[in-house]
Protease inhibitor/seed storage/lipid transfer protein family protein (Arabidopsis lyrata subsp. lyrata), 104 residues
Amino acid sequence: MGKNNTRFLMQFAVLAIVLSAAIMVKEATSIPVCNIDTNDLEKCRPAVTGNNPPPPGPDCCAVARAANLQCLCPYKPYLSTVGIDPSRVRPLLANCGLNSPSCF
């Protein structure tokens, strides 16, 4: 693996750890990623976890509408580290009336 690939993977590993910590600690300072404050991810958690998730609520759809969805593509492989099932993202976006970027 090249030096650039290793650096890239390390950066994403650090981001995944930071996002996980921010989500687990309710009082954590929100970190903006792709126009989403990490604390706002909790509004969508029910719709992207579990075997039979409920449809996203209006608060979740508001977060999804504000997000830069194309910007999230490089993070897709790391979503499961913060408790998000990547296969549930496309249905969530569809339920919110949004088009998914090609990566999802």
Notes: The two ends are 26 Å apart (CA to CA). DSSP finds three helices and two strands in the chain. Helices lie at 3-24, 58-66, 89-95. The mean pLDDT is 83.
